[in-house]
Design goal:
The chain has two domains: 8-160, no CATH class; 165-282, no CATH class. The protein is 71% helix and 1% strand. The protein contains 14 helices and two strands, in the order H-H-H-H-H-H-E-E-H-H-H-H-H-H-H-H. The protein has helices at 4-29, 37-54, 56-82, 89-106, 115-135, 146-153, 167-173, 176-203, 207-210, 213-232, 238-261, 268-283, 293-300, 319-324, and strands at residues 156-157, 161-162. Helix 3 (56-82) crosses helix 4 and helix 8 runs antiparallel to helix 10. Mean pLDDT is 80; it is low at 294-308 and 316-326.
Length: 326
């Protein structure tokens, strides 16, 4: 029976090997020692940046899908209220059918936001397989030949931290540099993951989103993923952890940019952005953008009339004089 998973992973591993070997070759052309652990760490970091940058269109699509999901949320709530308390199969099927129809009309689906994660998973497991093969000194499916695999197998960061070692190996063999490096990298990974998710939940969620079941799930994920990272770090090689670390930092920077430049309408981040834009336009002497909260505040404020003309003195007349003119 053919290895279906192996066949599906083959093109992914081939592309990953091409990027990794290409980055390694480029660093060698710059005069760096190809057998050093630093070159391999930089090669893995380059691979991470290339992969994550290539996924930017998917991230943009995810943002747009989330916007559309916000627009259709009131309609979904109406459908849920319509079938609330109805447990029969016919009602459940009807609710599911009407829900999917509402998503279809809005041009999105409830699983669109999961697309980047679903694509990252096979890439991550493909990288793990590529590095495991190199750790054994064996040739990969493409550009990672035996010579490159042997270089990677014997590479050590600063000559004291072998890239193929795990935290478990460090404790078993009493290798303090490996233990400290693994612990520091794990703490940074956990911190960046937690902070990224916390920023999304605290700044880029609308009041309606905070009332949804998905928000409750995100609160659970906020604490579950760091625990998963702590457990996984015990068995992952240093080289794989570098990929994970760079990917987490990339995600953090990307989310901070998204929250600042493309926040969800109605979220705290969106209100903060409108306030920044209003202050910027005010400094430039421009009116606030129509429809923004700043514009609404200006429109609600009573008009102030300032008379810039010089007031002429008014001639006083006595009652007797006015009476004499009658």
């Amino acid at each position: 029976m053919p290895d279906i998973i192996g066949l599906l992973m083959w093109p992914i591993k081939w592309v990953l090997e091409a990027i990794l070997a290409g980055a390694h070759w480029g660093l060698e052309q710059l005069g760096m020692d190809g057998s050093s652990g630093l070159v391999w760490v930089l090669s893995i970091a380059s691979l991470t940046l290339v992969v994550r940058t290539a996924m930017i269109p998917l991230t943009v699509r995810q943002i747009l899908s989330s916007r559309k999901a916000l627009e259709v949320a009131p309609e979904i709530k109406k459908i849920q209220d319509k079938y609330r308390g109805k447990k029969d199969q016919f009602s459940r099927e009807a609710m599911q059918r009407e829900t999917m129809e509402a998503y279809r009309k809005a041009g999105t689906n409830p699983f669109a936001s999961c697309l980047p994660l679903l694509i990252q998973m096979p890439i991550f497991f493909g990288l793990v397989t590529v590095l495991q093969t190199a750790n054994r000194g064996e040739a990969g499916v493409g550009f990672m030949g035996v010579s490159l695999a042997e270089q990677f197998r014997n590479a050590s960061l600063f000559d004291v931290v072998p890239l193929n070692m795990t935290m478990q190996h460090g404790f078993e063999q009493g290798m303090l540099p490996v233990i400290l490096t693994s612990i520091v990298m794990t703490l940074i990974m956990v911190a960046t993951q937690f902070y990224t998710q916390l920023q999304i939940m605290s700044k880029n969620q609308t009041p309606a989103m905070k009332e949804s079941p998905m928000y409750k799930q995100q609160r659970i994920i906020l604490y579950v993923i760091p625990v998963f990272l702590l457990i996984s770090a015990w068995a992952f090689p240093i080289a794989t952890m570098f990929y994970w670390l760079v990917s987490n930092i990339y995600t953090l920077v990307q989310q901070l940019i998204i929250i600042s430049k493309l926040p969800n309408p109605g979220s705290d981040a969106a209100l903060a952005r409108e306030a920044r834009m209003a202050r910027k336009r005010q400094r430039q002497g421009l009116p606030a953008e129509p429809g923004s909260d700043a514009t609404a505040a200006v429109e609600e404020a009573p008009p102030v009339v300032v008379n810039t003309q010089r007031q002429q003195p008014r001639r006083k007349t006595t009652k007797s004089k006015r009476g004499g003119n009658r």
